[in-house]
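User: Can you help me understand a structure? I only have the sequence.
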Amino acid sequence: MFLVSACEHPSSEYHELTIPSGKIESNDTGNPLTYSTQTIESQRADDGFGSAVTVGGGHVWVGAPHGETATVYKISGTNQSAVLTGPGRLGSHLAWTTQGLWIAAPLASDGLGGILNADGEFIIPGTGGTGISITAGPPATYAWEGGWTDSDGETFHLPQRPTALHVRAGEVGAGMAIGSIALKTKSQEWLRPENHDEAGFALASADINADGTPDWFVGAPGSNTVYGLDGSSLETLQTWNGVGRFGAAIAVCDLDGNGTSDLAIGAPQANQRGTLHIFMDLGTSPSHNWSGHTEGSGLGFAVDCNDGVLVAGAPGRADVQGRAIIIQAGND
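Assistant: Let's start by predicting it. Here is the structure, written out as tokens:
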């Protein structure tokens, strides 16, 4: 059973959130950047708050999918509300689509899964692991255990279980962290560069070489690498490297409003706290780095960026509360 809460201050049933007085630690370097940060923390240490994040509709949405009853929260300034609760790993993936908020519950209905909206309605029934990944598109697209289906009803079968989806200029790409193929579209495939590198764990896109065609970003946290692939040839244009499962989450947007894409990469196991790296203008060295507030935070497990707002999840562990850090930035 799925429940909807319209309250602005969730009851203890929904595990209220707090705004900690201390900020997540930051160590900023590089070009000047003015930014404001807001940190939201769950009052529970085992709900996975921050496992999924998305930005859309003027709000930040955060999933807390762990436990028998999971919760999806809406953050609007200093107001937080629990908008939906339910079983089945509800909120393990979130996406703001042209149809509104998509909420994945991949273990609902005895493992069939499904996609819900913010009103708790199953807008897409499950067929088997439905919702193991979703992407806003357009077209909005969801993964199931054997492939993906978009909001127009088109279905594409894959050789391995998909781990990430991303739509680049209307073309759906699927990442597969295991198997010989790391990235596959309907017309192209990119083979895994290294054994056990988990390439395909995360995907994003932007025009790296300024040729007018969006290129692919492929996260390979098993080798701590993010690959930038030419959108036409899939040749490697650029790589970014780090530590601590660097590349587990990727997001691209124009964070500072200068007309050039910026790249955010999560490394949730770096320095035992997790780290969020920001590469302004797709540079090869990080301009800004944020670290989790304590050991086990897992900052960078999930990342999303839209409309000049960047949000990163730090879901914690059994003894560490989950957090989300919201960053809004611009040039001096």
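Now, to help you interpret it: The chain has a mean pLDDT of 90. Helices lie at 108-111. Let me know which part you'd like to focus on.
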